């Protein structure tokens, strides 16, 4: 089922908040809620009623595929457009897709973090 911008953002925030070692804040501006793991950004939620989007890291080939296949996916705002995508409401953007994209972005960022600095999974 397609989700609207505000719900898209709620799903992204909820998903990110459940991942190990995640913190968030507004280091750039009040309208950008930035989520990080090990000090690295993996999700930006734009709190602007006129632009309810999320921005996430994605592998370049996957990012291009998503942009071709989904009208709600566009080159990333604010960051390197080869490695980041922005997602807004679209006819085929679903809560499951948003959860998957947040997890994918988190995993990509963690790949660049040395093992000794990675958060431990819950329960360990």
Give a written overview of the molecule.
The protein has 124 residues and is an alpha+beta fold. It is 32% helix and 23% strand. The protein is built from three helices and six strands; from the N terminus they run αββββαββα. The chain has a six-stranded antiparallel β-sheet with strand order 1-2-3-4-6-5, with helices on one face. Helix 1 crosses helix 3. The longest helix is centred in the last third of the chain and has 17 residues, at 95-111. The relative contact order is 0.22.
pLDDT below 50 for ≥5 consecutive residues: which ranges?
A: none
* Strand segment tally: 6
Kindly estimate the percentage of residues that lie in beta strands according to DSSP: 15-25%
Strand arrangement, major sheet: 1-2-3-4-6-5
C-alpha geometry:
globular
Estimate percent helicity.
Answer: 25-40%
- Structural class by helix and strand composition: alpha+beta
If you compute it from the alpha carbons, what radius of gyration comes out, rounded to the nearest whole angstrom? 14 Å
User: In sequence order, what are the helices and strands, one letter per element?
Assistant: HEEEEHEEH
Calculate the terminal CA-CA distance, rounded to whole Å.
Answer: 35 Å
Number of helices: 3
* Largest beta-sheet characterization: 6 strands, antiparallel
Mean pLDDT: 91
């Amino acid at each position: 089922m397609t989700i609207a911008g505000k719900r898209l953002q709620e799903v992204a925030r909820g998903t990110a908040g459940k991942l190990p070692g995640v913190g968030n804040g507004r280091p750039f501006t009040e309208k950008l809620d930035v989520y990080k793991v090990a000090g690295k950004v993996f999700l930006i939620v734009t709190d602007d009623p006129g632009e309810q989007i999320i921005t996430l890291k994605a592998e370049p080939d996957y990012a291009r595929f998503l942009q071709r296949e989904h009208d709600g996916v566009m080159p990333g705002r604010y960051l390197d457009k080869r490695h980041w995508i922005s997602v807004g409401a679209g006819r085929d953007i679903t809560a499951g897709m948003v959860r998957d994209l947040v997890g994918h972005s988190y995993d990509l960022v963690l790949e660049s973090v040395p093992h000794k600095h990675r958060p431990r999974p819950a329960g360990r």
